[in-house]
Design a protein that fits this description.
The protein has three helices and 15 strands. It has one domain. The protein is mainly β and about 220 residues long. The two termini are about 20 Å apart. It has a five-stranded antiparallel beta sheet with strand order 9-13-7-2-14. A three-stranded antiparallel beta sheet has the order 1-8-15. A three-stranded mixed beta sheet has the order 6-3-11, with no helix packed on it. The protein is about 15% helix and about 35% strand.
Length: about 220
């Protein structure tokens, strides 16, 4: 998969010449000060509506179904439960994560829609880039989780069974209006519950892994 990064010219130059790059956080994307197409007050969340009609049986000693996690707490020696004719709703929120946003396609239309971005860089040497970046971010107490393509869908999920899948992780959901972005997220998970903030990383090697691309 090819990877691209849209940036304002001054940040593009800083990356290519000095190896300066910003690693954001999931919660920071909620900041209304960010440009259109980046800011999203609902980042990292989804609403799960669960409507169970006919009786369903669950064995909680085996595994709590994802759809019921956070909705029902089982204590004591209870092993089997039955649910039916019930409606439950919960808001699922991801923990804060370090995130680098990239795209799997280069699009001038998308670049122009982000507000303030006027250059597109291709990440040519992906393995070398992430090896270097991971070493640096690990010193900030976070571990690399991987590269993930975003899913463009409604943040409200309607389920009719407690055994149904709850779908994509809330940190990888974006509204359908942004589907042309083809966003890919590199994610680092903090090793503790401490509050995290965006990082500005400066390493001269990082710029060597990118090249400008005309779109």
């Amino acid at each position: 998969m090819r990877l691209y990064k849209y940036l304002p010219k001054r940040f593009s130059n800083a990356l290519l010449k000095r190896g300066s790059i910003r690693i954001g956080t999931l919660f920071d994307f909620r900041n209304s000060e960010h440009k259109k197409g980046i800011s999203d007050a609902t980042e990292g969340t989804k609403l799960i509506n669960l409507d169970i009609g006919e009786i369903e049986n669950y064995d909680y000693l085996t595994k709590t179904p994802d759809a019921l996690k956070g909705l029902i707490e089982i204590s004591g020696e209870c092993r089997n439960i039955s649910l039916g004719n019930i409606h439950m709703t919960r808001k699922q929120s991801s923990q804060d994560l370090f995130i680098l946003c990239l795209s799997s396609e280069a699009s001038k239309l998308v670049m122009n829609s982000l507000g303030g971005t006027d250059e597109c860089l291709e990440l040519v040497y992906q393995e070398e880039f992430f090896q270097t970046l991971n070493r640096i971010i690990s010193l900030n107490g976070a571990s690399f989780e991987g590269l993930y393509e975003c899913t463009y869908q409604d943040r409200t999920l309607n389920l009719t069974s407690g055994k149904a899948s709850t779908g994509q992780h809330s940190s990888l959901i974006k509204e359908t209006e942004f589907s042309e972005q083809k966003e890919v997220r590199a994610i680092w998970k903090p090793n503790s519950d401490r509050e995290i903030h965006p990082l500005t990383i400066n390493n001269s090697n990082l710029g060597c892994f990118f090249r400008k691309t005309d779109i």
